[in-house]
Amino acid sequence: MTTGCGCGCDGGETLIFTCAGAAHSGQAANRAGVQAMQQGIGNLFCIAAVAADIADKMTRVRKAGKRIAIDGCSDHCCRKVLEKAGLTADVHVVATDLGIEKKPAQPDMAGDANKIVDKIKALMGAAC
Ligand code: SF4
Asked: How far is the CA of 2 from the centre of ligand 1 (A)?
């Protein structure tokens, strides 16, 4: 039986996945995932291990109290990998939805990663 709000604040682990795409927005998504982990929001986890269906990794992913997916663009690769594994993203943030360009003329990695982390925090607060 599920207890609490299910967001991970009741003890379940929060896992953070990023698409880690090659474009600037995908790399900003990955940077944001690292920053979110450093700020104590959750633990960064390998989306490639989910795609590869690595058994011991999947056990931890299925047990997670909350899963955060960060995508670089509207292709939503990270969210789709979770869904193909029968899992949902409780929080989903897409870099390009925040005005972050895939190929900006003047990339601002730090600023764009901060924008993504701020959005995650806002959605996490709304979910509790
Ligand atoms: S979501 Fe976009 S940026 Fe991320 S891996 Fe997929 S195509 Fe690349």
From this structure: 33
pTM, full prediction: 0.91
List all residues whose CB is within 6 A of at least one atom of ligand 1.
19, 21, 23, 25-26, 71-73, 75-77
**Domain 14-127: CATH architecture, name and number where available:** 3-Layer(aba) Sandwich (3.40)
- Which residue, chain included where needed, has tokens 């924008």? 115
Look at residue 15 and give its three-state secondary structure. Answer: strand
Give the amino acid at 82.
Answer: L
Core vs surface per residue 79-110: b (16+ CB within 10 A) or e: bebbeeeebebbbbbbbbeeebbbeeeeeeee
What Rg, from alpha-carbon coordinates, does the chain have?
Answer: 14
In angstroms, what is the span from residue 26 Cα to ligand 1's centroid? Answer: 6
Q: How far apart are CA 36 and CA 41, in angstroms?
A: 5
Identify the residue whose C-alpha is closest to ligand 1 atom 5.
21
pLDDT in tens, 22-74: 999 999 999 999 999 999 999 999 999 999 999 999 999 999 999 999 999 99
